Structure formats: structure tokens, C-alpha cells
Amino acid sequence: MSRPDLNMLFTLDALLAEGSVARAARRLQLSPSAMSRALARLREATGDPLLVRAGRDMVATPRALELRGQVRQLVQDGEAALRPVEKPRLDQLKRSFTIRASEGFVENFGPALIARVGAQAPGVRLRFVQKVDKDSTPLREGLVDMETGVIGEGMGPEVRVQALFRDRFVGAVRPEHALARGPIDAARYAGGRHVLVSRRNRDTGPVDEALAPLGLQRDIVAIVGGFAAALALARTSDLVATVPQRHTSTMRAGMFCFELPFDVPAIPVSLMWHPRLQADPAHQWLRETLRAVCAQAQDA
After folding, report:
1. Where are the beta strands (DSSP E) in 190-295?
2. 199 located within any domain
3. CATH code of residue 71
């Protein structure tokens, strides 16, 4: 059995609405003869005359009257399906978004993001999950809606990426630490006892790579998996924690912080999402909101 030509639904809708071949032809910008041929095909497809002449006018058959509402709804549904999605009414939006991010990102940018989302879309819930690696599987499998961080080798090529900001490393020690007094050069920095942050069990990081050309090496006495743990150790000991400035601004409260006296590459922080959510209006709005929060924090 051959498939019906669904374009005939639009023709039938016009004929049933106008009750006239000539008026339906004008509505669809067709010639009267083309519309007459279309009516003949519709009669053959439905097995019903649909419109019959009554004097100078045409009247609908019972079958046509039965189809009128159904066909109108099908046409409206088809037009709606092919129409670009409208922006959501944020004040009526009910949705939950899962964001995969580091604890530092949540602590420093989460409050402003929650406040802005709550003011615009009070029915939206944000769920933050810990980012323990750079694998894009959670994005591909739909376990998370978006994530922030540094792009890693495990990030799939299909993942959409947009830069948020560039962070830089700073040193942090307790106020009574020796580095809190006097100028700090590379040799004095490297001469301290250090805590290294490594999520992949490495013994060195970008800071050590920057020190190597200077002939210097840090004395790393502890390795932890997160910036919060590194700062907690530095706050209560003579260890030096070297952490991203923007990701740890609230965590470093009360500590003595200093710029590194040598060049270390900046940390590019990006927003990532799967292409299936690229055109989702609510997702677009949240992406724009998160970018605005990061930009505002950078300008502050």
C-alpha cells in the first residue's frame, strides 16, 4: 500500500474551510484548474466527493464535515512541529538542570548563578555534581546537561565548547607564614614546603614545569585531590598551596595570597554541552546566564 501524500492535508483543509475551489485556490496561491485536480485526487483518496454542487455553491458532504476538525488540527500540529521553538516563559518554566563542575566553581560562582536563575525562573532547579575527571561520557549519555572546566583529552569531538574565562595560579599561605613577610622571588617560593593538587596521581604539575627552566624544584611534601583540601592544609601548617585565583577566591579568605614570581600558563575554563541540547531554548538561556555570571565576576 502506497503512502498518502500528506501535502493533500493542506489542500483539503483549505477546501473545507473555504467551501469553494476558487477561494481555496487563491488561499494556496494555486490556479483553479490545479485546485480542481487536487480535489479529484482527494476524492479518490478518501472515497468521498467531499464537496458537491448545490446550485451555484458547493456544500460539504457528511464525510467532509466529519473530517473538517480533524484535518484542521493535523495541519496546525504540523505547522507547529516545523516552526522554530519559541523562547520559554521563564516565569512558568519547570525544569531541573544538572551541572557538572568542580567544588571551587560551585562555591565561587554557584551563589550568583542560583540567585540570577531564581529571579528569572523560580521553577528551575540546579543540581551540581562533582567533576572528578574530564571524560565526556556523562554529557554524551545525558547524565548531565552541561559542565565547566578545562578541556581534556577524554572530551569527545562532538561536544560543544565555549570559553568562559582564563584563570591563573596564585600562592596561598597562613598569615604567620615566612612568605607573608618580605618580597617573594622564584627561589624563595620554590624553597618552601608545598602541597600539590593532582586528580590524576601525578607528582608534578604546570607550576613545576614553569620552574624547571629556572633550575628550581619545589619540595612537595603532600599531594591532595582538590583545592579545598590543599588550602585547608596550608591554613593550618607551613605548607604553600598554589591554586587557581578565581576558583578559590572564597576558600582563601583570611589567608595571605601572592602572585607567582614567574610565568605559568593561564588556565582556560570553558562551558561544555552535548549538541543534542544546542537548540533547546531553556538550555540556551541557562548557558547565557552562566556566561553572564562568569563575566560579571570577572569585571568585579
Report:
1. 193-197, 219-224, 239-244, 256-259, 267-273
2. yes
3. 1.10.10.10
- DSSP character string of 127-171: EEEE--S---HHHHTTS-SEEEE---TTS-TT-EEEEEEEE-EEE
Per-10-residue mean pLDDT, the chain, length 300: 74 86 87 88 88 83 86 80 75 94 89 96 94 80 90 77 93 96 96 90 90 95 92 96 91 94 93 91 95 78
Residue 72: give the domain boundaries.
Answer: 7-81
Query: Residue 283 to residues 117, 127, 272, 274, 278: CA-CA distances in angstroms?
Result: 12, 14, 12, 11, 8
pLDDT, residue 298, reads 65
SS3 59: strand
- What pLDDT was estimated at residue 1? 47
Any domain includes 259: yes
CB 243 within 8 A of CB 227: yes
Query: What is the distance between the terminal CA atoms of the chain, rounded to a whole angstrom?
Result: 68
